Amino acid sequence: MTLFCGQFGIEVMQCYGITETSPAANVNQPDPPVVTRTGRAAMGKRAGSVGRLMPGMSARIVDPETGAELSATTTGMLLLKGANVFTGYLRDPEKTVDALRDGWFVTGDLGRFDDDGFLYIEGASRGSPRSAARWCRMARWSRRSSRRFGWEATETPNMAVVGVPIPSKASSSCSSPPRDCHRPVARTSARRRTACPLDPEDYPPGRNRSLLGSGKLDLKSCKAIALQACD
Q1: What is the DSSP string of 80-113?
Q2: Quick one: 23 and 60 in the same domain?
Q3: Which tens digit of pLDDT belongs to each residue from 90-117?
């Protein structure tokens, strides 16, 4: 987004919404002007986020496996409620029951809020709750590892966490940096959940091999890099 703005002089701001929310739920907007002498500068947008909730909307973050409510700053399943949220699917009561829980719409997307109310979408889970829970753990592990290596947050991901098979029944999580530079790869063992930094040379350099043209992660390439690093 920053490169696009610098090249064309047009600022593009992300938002979030789906058909069931008619359609917008969160929006980034230009920073509001300070119009009084005692007024303070306010932030209307934040890079990497999809903005704050629309007026009149409420959100919850829940554990995708148990449905227990989590802290808003913890990655989990995003639930929404508001006047713009639909009341059900036409002639499909079974799907409606799955989508609405006590008036809350289950988006199927994984996200978290920061302390200022900006929402970050960290994945989508249209599969089983167990799969969604695993995505949540990977997102949290990615953020912790990035902080450990001292990498600053950017608009595009600076680390991808994917699952790779190992000989035992358990699976291992291996992260691969999508940047075109020598950065260390971190790996967890089946018996320990602590991150084990590998030698930077374990990651062969490439030019944005794990990013699609849209700037999103190419999960297939990420997994290939992770498998190579874990050999």
Answers
A1: EESTTS----TT-HHHHHHHEETTEEEEEEEEEE
A2: yes
A3: 999 999 999 999 999 999 888 999 999 9
